[in-house]
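[Q] Does anyone have a clean structure-token version of this?
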Amino acid sequence: QLSIAAAALAVNVLAARVMGPSGRGQIALVLQISYVLAVLALAGTDRAYPAVMPGANAAGMRQLAAPGIAIATAGCATTSLVLHSRPQLAVLAGLLALITAGNAMLTGLRAADATAGTRTYLPAALTGQAVLVAAAAVLTATGTSSPTAWAFAYALSLTIPAGVLWVRTWHQPDHDPRPARKLGWKLLPGTIAGIIAMRADRIMLPAL
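[A] Here you go.
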């Protein structure tokens, strides 16, 4: 959490200086939408998994997260195709799919770590933040003000470490995920209420 907060502060300052309020607002909107979609994709299973499946590894969390991630990313990709007449929005919608998938995968890894007592999430999070800060430094040094380029940096920082770790843990034995899925649906309304309370104002900022 400390590394994420420090990296976010540094990247936000750099992005605001290079892109200005309008461009930074577009990136903020994409990120906030991705957080909400990631919550919906996981459907509360990231909270339920440690409670009902103690000792289970990342394989069960993959089973739980995969359908929602697939639906969310497919929806974003479809939106990108629909917006083909507006290239920048189409590309941002496509990158939103990657950012959403990365957010959901990292959240799933964190839940699996809490369940199994492993330490796969920490190196993934640190690697992602290092990639993001390095990309932000390059974009700032080159004066790149395109929101698309900055969104691509966020997508890389999330999907690369999460994807690598999910592949590395693919050999782990599967667990029956149904108990966690059932509890996740029960927890989802409270999770959605929390995410709306925390992020509704941020989603409205670009409109304001």
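[Q] Thanks! Anything notable?
[A] Residues 23 and 147 are 6 Å apart (CA to CA).
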